[in-house]
Amino acid sequence: MLVSRIDEKSIRRIPLFAMPLERRVNAPETFEPASNMTTMPYAPRAGRPIDDAEQYVRKQRSRRATFIKWLRKVHGWVGLWGAVLGLLFGTTGFLLNHRAGPLKISSGEPQVSQMQMAVPEHGLKSPMELGKWLKQELRLDGNIGRPKRESAHAVGWGDQKTMQPELWTVAVASPSGSVSAEYWVGNGFVSVKKSENSFLATMSNLHKGVGLSVGWVLLIDTLAGSIILLSLTGVLLWTELNKRKTVGAMIVMASIVAMVWMGLM
């Protein structure tokens, strides 16, 4: 539809009293634009018409902006969740990586003490029962490790042979230290040895989950998952916000090559 720049609406805006009387009487009911007037395509008030191709491009841009916004939120919240644990595990991982070899970093020597404990009057029937009794008697925190039972067997002593009784060993471990016990079946005492770890060794045991419950293990699983998610969202954000994808691909390949090369050295 083509309309003139001076349309009927603009004519109606002219006050009637401002027009001469003869023009008010003889004014036409409709306005016909002159043939020499310039015309322009009709467009809605909101702006120029939008074709299908431009609508598709705008939808794609809107979806991309929404996706990037969602990625940033996920990256930020997941990073906040694993921030404190990430600092802990980054530090302890560094210490564990240098626990031996030419670049060894000492985490301190444990403080060791020993004592003898009398066997309870009702006796002990198994290594697991020994561990439970020891944990209750000494009020220990931590989990009972896998008990060991060494059967009685004959041993040589010079030119003689003697029978060595059955040996039970059990340990109760926690991040701050451990308590181990040895009991020769038939003996009236249990040998107990206690080791107290330094602060750095305690942090390393937290990293390894020594003597901790299932809840801690599941918590560490969430940290591992968050690290994986941070890596994926970080790569996606980089590819969406940076046009130099070739440089990014080269950096990733260089990191993989360096990891394999260092691992094979």
Q: What would your notes on this structure say?
A:
- The protein has helices at residues 8-12, 21-26, 52-81, 83-97, 127-138, 199-208, 214-241, 245-264; strands at residues 2-4, 39-41, 111-118, 143-144, 148-150, 153-157, 160-164, 167-174, 177-184, 189-196.
- The chain has 265 residues and is α+β, with helices and mostly antiparallel strands.
- Among the domains are: 58-109 and 210-241, no CATH class; 111-142 and 164-197, no CATH class.
- Helix 3 runs antiparallel to helix 7 and helix 4 (83-97) packs across helix 6 (199-208).
- The strands form three sheets. Strands 3, 4, 5, 8, 9 and 10 form a six-stranded antiparallel beta sheet that branches. A two-stranded antiparallel ribbon has the order 1-2. A two-stranded antiparallel ribbon has the order 6-7.
- The chain is built from eight helices and ten strands.
- The radius of gyration is 41 Å and the shape is elongated.
